[in-house]
Amino acid sequence: MRDVTAGSEAILELLPMVFADPGEARARAEHVLRSGPSPLHASVAHQVLGIWQRDFGDLRIALRHLRRARDLAARAESADREADVLATLGVALVHAGRTRQGLASFERGVARGSGHTRARVLYRRAYVWWVLGRHREALEDVRRALPVLRQVADDIWTARALTLRATVHLALGAVDRAVADFTAAERLWDTTGQEHDKADAVESRGLAAFRSGDIPAALRLLDEAEERYAKLGTPTYNLSIRRCEVLRAAGLAPEALAEADAAIAELDRIGGQSTRKAELLLAASWAARSAGDAHTAIARAAVAVRLFAAQRRTWWETHARLVLIEARVAAGRRSGRMVADAAAVAEKLASFGSPAAPEASLLAGRIALALGWTADAERHLAVAARSRYGGPPPARVTGWAAQALRARAAGSRRGVLEACRRGLDVLDDHRMTLGASELRAHATAQGAELAALAQEVSLAQGSPRRLLAWSERWRATVLSAPPTRPPDDPALLSGLTAYREIAARAEAARMEGRPVPALEREQRRLEREVRSRTRHMGGAAAGAGYRFDVDRLLDRLGDGRLVELVVVDGRVHVLLCGQGRVRRFAGGSLDQAVAEAGHVQAALRRLAHPGAEARLPLVEEAGRRLQDLLLAGAVPHLGAGPVVIVPPGALHQVPWALLPALRERVLSVSPSAGSWLRARETEPPPRGRPVLVRGPGLATGGAEVPELAGRYGTATVLEDDEARVPRVLAELDGAGLAHLAAHGTFRADSPLFSALRMADGPLIVHDFERLARSPYRIILSSCETARLASVGADELLGVVTALLPLGTAGVVASSAPVNDAAVVPLMLALHKGLDTGLSLAEALRDARAALPGDAVHQATGWAFAAFGAA
């Protein structure tokens, strides 16, 4: 700075240190103030403390330090020093919600500074313009600052200016320009020691990756940025805002909401920036709306609107108004005023160049359609539909959804189906870029409306074949290709090992009645680490998915039948496939069927224990009611051959063998007709060997395993200390038949952590996904291993769905807790059937029939099902 003497250079080094080593900078500044400094040096120290408190602490304390720094700079009669502090104070005032005072501080700073200092002031005012959502002003100030910063070779501030310009470009949807600026900034950061700025650059690249549609890369970069911030000990509120956006787009809205709410609570605790709080409230409202929690979304968005308005942040306020209107619509509100409000929001967003403008136009069109205002709806939907040919996948899907609604309003069924097809193609390609099965499953939620519109039109056209094709188009798509095999990532492997060890210790402590809060906290931390690592995986090329063929399905069925249950507007429709055709029968209410299935599951849990025999007739009666709701008029047409049931996600808890018409049949279950067809066409591995595994803690000790070992003379038997996860996985890879007798647990909150208990801890779904090829046939002699979580549009996550895309053609598993002693004769009879060449479904039918007739054994037989086609 021009007016600062050479003797001040050591003091001035504290300013860049705030973003290189924040803790050290704060400590040195406090030391300077204790040493009786000159006004000039004290001004710098107070400014450093003000920056630290502004970005990492209490904003009220920050303002006190910065006002003191401003007054001391004036006393030192250093114009450039005063200008620099005025800029820092201006940023803090804007973050405190005092926008008018902040901008006035910048006016004085620009007037007082000159040359290099004025360029730095202009950069910081550009940052404030970005915070306020005034992007054109931000770009103008960066344009004025950059040449000066480059001329004096100020690499740090040049890199900051480039990073800011890139961030503004992203807000305007100019991803290529943003990437170019981020790349140039990162080259400069590599020449400096500004560790906080480097972490910010990684975070910004994560945002750019997200805007480019690469969610795995975005999550990886944001996680890397968080690790860098953690080393510096600095908070990550802005990172939380960005991660919430990525998580929401990935279909992980509940996780995004939890992160936003936690950050808000922490910000309130320390008295942090009002601007950041408003942005976090907006992120929380978006997440709550996406999670289906309209009331929370309304509450968060309403507060965000008020804060943004008070802060004079029109760009942000308009986005908050969009989510507020969407949440109110989701809560069932409709009015002409809301059409006008949504249209006004759309117009304002378009004037800002916001990528969210089409979403607002689509919202206005939806409300108008609900009110019967077809002319208004057409006008707004036509505007939204323009986005279908360009931009990131969500924007294009928005456009195709608008086009589908336009076609439906115009009475063009063909137009609806074409728009749905094109929109789902966009999502198909996007989904296949995701490597983690969890992300693929959640991503399908974005296509739920398009799939439902296509089903509705197909039903109205009276074509069961077309209804089947469209139902398959967006069902169990996560199984259409294997997930990307996790890389040999040492961090992931060590995380899985550590998770297994901690989970085993926690389980042992619980069994001894000891408290385990510390172990549970560590287990949750390791779960987050494993989940994050797996989400970093990229997927295959676009268009790599599997396409369903109705004719091939009918040909492969032979004399069998496949029953696909389709839900349209809350009603079940039964699609019966067989004898070269597809027929439709009307079923009952989905809600009634789900409630009935819940009662049956509860009864099966009780019947797993002796003494509940009186409930058996009640369970059988519930089976008859379920049959009336779910099979209805299709029962007389099931034929004498095998039957495959393809239920929607909400009905995967139904014990299908309990239904009278299915009780004595060769019966299998599949997540989709397409996945059954792929299983049917899967060839067994050459030289596939049997593997028998016996886990710890079973009441019978896995009594069937020794007898099966004698029956399969060549089988690999793993028990006691040999039944450890690494050894078990090594033997399962490429096996022809695997039998695992182990305690099973299903995690509804995190289905990919559902597990089988081995000697060294849980064998989880993430472990199975590391197999090059899972066993051709696998029998899970465990509780609840067939339970699945329904996510996304109609996707299912759990142990069974993890195995099917990896080479397993058939699985036998239980959907409920079972009696260990009753499982043993069932398993022995099942293997006896396999010895004679029967399929899993045939052998399971015969094994049920061979069980004793008491309630415990009958309930055990009904709890198990055959999945797939082996």
Key phrases:
single chain, 870 residues, alpha/beta, six-stranded mixed beta sheet, five-stranded mixed beta sheet, 16 strands, TPR_rpt
Would you mind describing this structure in some detail?
This protein is 61% helix and 9% strand. With 870 residues, the protein is of the alpha/beta class. Helix 6 (79-95) runs antiparallel to helix 7 (99-112) and helix 16 (274-290) packs antiparallel against helix 17 (294-310). The protein is globular.
Uncertain segments are: 1-7
E-strand count: 16
Oligomeric state, counting identical vs distinct chains: single chain
Shape: globular
Rounded radius of gyration (Å)? 31 Å
N-to-C terminal Cα separation, in Å?
Answer: 78 Å
Main sheet attributes: strand count, strand direction, barrel closure? 6 strands, mixed
Strand order of the largest sheet: 7-6-8-12-15-16
* Structural classification: alpha/beta
- Fraction in helix: 55-70%
Average predicted local confidence, pLDDT: 88
Strand residues, percent: 5-15%
> What's the total helix number?
39
Domain CHAT: 621-868
InterPro entries: CHAT_dom, TPR-like_helical_dom_sf, TPR_rpt
Protein name: CHAT domain-containing protein
Pfam family, one: CHAT
Provide a brief overview of the structure.
With 870 residues, the chain is α/β, with parallel strands linked by helices. Pfam families: CHAT.
SSE blueprint and pairings:
Blueprint (H helix, E strand, L loop, with lengths): L8 H4 L1 H4 L4 H13 L4 H18 L2 H17 L3 H17 L3 H14 L2 H18 L2 H17 L3 H17 L3 H15 L5 H17 L3 H18 L4 H13 L3 H18 L3 H17 L3 H17 L3 H17 L5 H17 L4 H14 L3 H12 L7 H17 L3 H19 L5 H7 L4 H14 L2 H10 L16 H22 L5 H19 L14 H8 L3 E8 L2 E8 L2 E9 H18 L8 H15 L12 E4 L20 E3 L3 H8 L9 E5 L9 H8 L4 E4 L5 H8 L4 E5 L2 E2 L9 E4 L2 E4 H4 L8 E5 L7 E3 L3 E3 L1 H5 L6 E5 L5 H16 L4 H11 L4 H9 E5 L2
Parallel strand pairs: 1-4, 4-5, 6-7, 6-8, 8-12, 12-15
Antiparallel strand pairs: 1-2, 2-3, 9-10, 10-11, 13-14, 15-16
Helix pairs in contact: 3-4, 4-5, 4-6, 5-6, 6-7, 6-8, 7-8, 8-9, 8-10, 9-10, 10-11, 10-12, 11-12, 12-13, 13-14, 14-15, 14-16, 15-16, 16-17, 16-18, 17-18, 18-19, 19-20, 20-21, 20-22, 21-22, 22-23, 23-25, 25-26, 27-28, 30-31, 37-38
